[in-house]
Structures are given as structure tokens and as C-alpha cells.
Amino acid sequence: MTRIPESELVLNPDGSIYHLNLHPEDLAHTIITVGDPGRVARVSKYFDEIEVKKQKREFVTHTGRIGQKRLTVLSSGIGTENIDIVLNELDALVNIDFENRTIRAVQRSLNIIRIGTSGSLHADIPVGSFVASAYGIGLDNLLSFYDYTPTLGEAELTDQLREFMALTSKLPFYASEGNAALLEVIGRGMHQGITLTSAGFYGPQGRILRAKARFDAERFQQLANFSYRQIPITNFEMETSAIYALSRLLGHQALSTNVILANRASQQFSANPKEEMEKLIQNVLKKISDSAIFQ
Fold first, then answer.
1. Percent helix, strand and coil across the chain, each to the nearest 5
2. Among 178, 174, 183, 139, which residue's Cα sits nearest to residue 155?
3. Facing residues of 131 across strands?
4. β 227-228/231-237 pair status
5. Are residues 134 and 177 in contact, defined by beta-carbon separation less than 8 angstroms?
6. What is the pLDDT of residues 171-204, one digit of tens each?
7. For residue 209, is it within any domain?
């Protein structure tokens, strides 16, 4: 088999993967990603035991158990460029033999669940609501660097949204689909929608402080009127589309869940963001603990 050179698969002197600083045995089959490094401990405090604690740069990892189920919680940092690092290195940890630098003959598939924060585009999805993303719409250029063939649903969504945007915002985008089985289990009882993934927090989401944005909040708000198969565009954040696209490209299952901290339609922000996030963490962990689909 072809050996992957040192310049492409970069390892630390101790044999761990370069950015995440992890060895294959540090990783569980089910992985929770969070943007904020400080949120890792807020998830792992619910573990019955913690086996691994590691950190490098913004990437903090705790691996442990809830009952008999082994989980990893990992901070990704903010943005799709960080997701590019995280998803490729997670995949390398389970599907590349580091000693021989070759792709393993038998591939492993991970469950990857995002617990994040987001802004709603609908007044009836208020601050404190939970949203599970059926699809991500990438308003960045990450997927243009990969050989990616869309699913039928992604292709249909792209065509319909492009037609809708011809009358509104004409933003460059790509569509990526979450895992249906994870959506059914983890997304139960949550709002389910299409999530816009932006390349930034201010101009790329139509926020204007001093720098004038090319597309203002009103232009983005028009996208709330779009739906695909009765699934509306519900919210904004900065990671989902890349998690979905790279997970499917690499053969993993992914779902993004978000608590709404900002309501762009009503111009409100949560008075208790930590409390709202705590509720989402508890909700997701209980569903993982109760479901037989997780090892």
C-alpha cells in the first residue's frame, strides 16, 4: 500500500497526531465536538470516569465513560477551517496506521455530534430553543477544495436554494446533509431545520458594527422564507456544513445540535447563555446514554 509521507501526515515526536495531540487509543467511537475549549469540562463533568485529558492550542480533549458507554468530548475552536483540521485528524486516528503510514484495510466509522450555540432567523424559535440540523448550508469555500459528490437531497436542495437566491441574496454556498439516524435519536423534541454555516461572526452573518457588510441582516433574514421538503432555514452558526460534508466524505455519521442564544428576528440575546448551554448538554448526553445505537 502507498505510504503517506511525513509532510502530509504530520505526527508529533511522541507519535500523536499533529494538532489534536491524540493517539488512536485516546479516542472513543462517539465524539462530541464543542467550539469553546472551556465547554469540554462542562460536558465531561457528567462522565462517571475520565480516562484521558489532553490539550494542544485550542484543542482540548477528554475521553471517559457514562455507564458502559465510552465518549470523547473535543473542542474544535471556531470556524470551518478548524473543522477541516479536526475531521481529517479524527479520521486519521481511526483509519490510518501511524506506524506504517498506510490507510487501514478495514475502515472505522465514528459518530460525531456537535453541541454548539447559534442564532435563530425565526421569531418563533426563541432564545433557549434547541435546533438539530437536517442540512448545513456552507457560506464558505471549504468544500471547493475537496472532490465531493452531493447526495440526491443535497443536489435538490442546492438547485432549489439557488433558484430562491436568484430573487434575493445570490450568496455562494454548498449544501451538506446530516445523518438521518442521529437526527431521529438526538434531534427528537428539538426544532429541526437547515443551518447556515458562515465564514465569520460579523460581516458574514450580516452584522454591522463599523465595517460595512456587503449583505446586511435584512438580506440574510430573507432566507428564513426558504424551505426544502418543508424543512426551513432556521439558524446561523460557523461549523455545521463542514462537519457534515467532511464526515460523509470520510464515512462518518454526524449531527449538529445548537442552543439558540441570539434571535436575529426579534434582536434578542440570551440573558443566561451558560444555563441554556447546560440544558442542551444534559439533553444530548441523556439521549446518548439511553440509545442503543451508541456503543
1. 30, 30, 40
2. 174
3. 191, 258
4. antiparallel
5. yes
6. 889 999 999 999 999 999 999 999 999 999 999 8
7. yes
What pLDDT, on a 0 to 100 scale, did the predictor assign at position 166? 84
Tell me whether residue 9 is in a domain. no
63-67, 69-73, 221-225, 246-250: which range is least confident on average?
221-225
C-alpha cell at 34: 464543542
Q: How many domains does the chain have?
A: 1
Specify whether the CB–CB gap between 21 and 55 falls below 8 A.
Answer: yes
pLDDT of residue 41: 98
Q: What is the pLDDT of residues 114-125, one digit of tens each?
A: 999 999 999 999
Q: How far is CA 94 from CA 143, 227, 260, in A?
A: 22, 37, 33
277 vs 262: CA distance, rounded Å: 13
pTM of the prediction? 0.96
- Whether the per-residue pLDDT at 14 is higher than 90: the answer is yes
Q: Which residue has the cell 474544535?
A: 76
Q: The domain containing residue 123 runs over which residues?
A: 24-290
Instruction: Let me know if residue 77 belongs to a domain.
Output: yes
Q: Are 182 and 291 in contact (CB under 8 A)?
A: no
Residue 243 in any domain: the answer is yes
